[in-house]
Amino acid sequence: MFEIWSMLTDTAAYELSQRCSRLQPLRGKKRKEESPKEKREGEREKKKKKKKKKKKKKKKKKKKKKKKKKRKCLIESAGRRKEEEDGEEEEKEEEEEEEEEEEEEEEEEED
Q1: Are 34 and 42 in contact (CB under 8 A)?
Q2: What percent of the chain has pLDDT over 70?
Q3: pLDDT for 65-90, tens place per residue?
Q4: By C-alpha distance, which of 76, 74, 53, 72 is closest to 64?
Q5: Number of H helices and number of E strands within the chain?
Q6: How do the domains of the chain map onto residue ranges?
Q7: 11 vs 16: CA distance, rounded Å
Q8: Is the distance from CB of 8 to CB of 16 less than 8 angstroms?
Q9: What confidence tier does 2 reach under pLDDT thresholds 50, 70, 90?
């Protein structure tokens, strides 16, 4: 009786272990324990990476701001140039109109 009972329990234990292993197979390797020294080094590396990333982001932001400012200056200078050109054109037009008026006055005086 004892032998039969042990055989049944062995097979039941085997089947149970098989079912559990099918339901939850081990994924990857087990995590190894890190020594405190390794832990600190890892944390330092993480901090360095984070700091470097932050610095890079700040530099990128500064570059973008500088580019935006430069673009704004270019637009303003182009606007000023255009105003100057418009002013020169207006002066030329006024001079031409004055010359035409003078010519018309001279023609009227001749008649």
Answers
A1: yes
A2: 78
A3: 999 999 988 888 888 888 888 888 88
A4: 72
A5: 2, 0
A6: 60-85
A7: 8
A8: no
A9: low
pTM of the model: 0.41
Side chain identity, residue 24: Q
- E-strand ranges in the chain read none
Cα-Cα-Cα-Cα dihedral sign, residues 80, 85, 90, 91: positive
Q: How many residues does the chain have?
A: 111
The residue type at 102: E
**Residue 98: CA count within 13 A, CB half-sphere:** 6
| CA separation for the pair 26, 24 (Å, rounded) | 6
pLDDT on residue 65: 94
pLDDT in the model for residue 108: 80
> The tokens of 104 are what?
């018309």
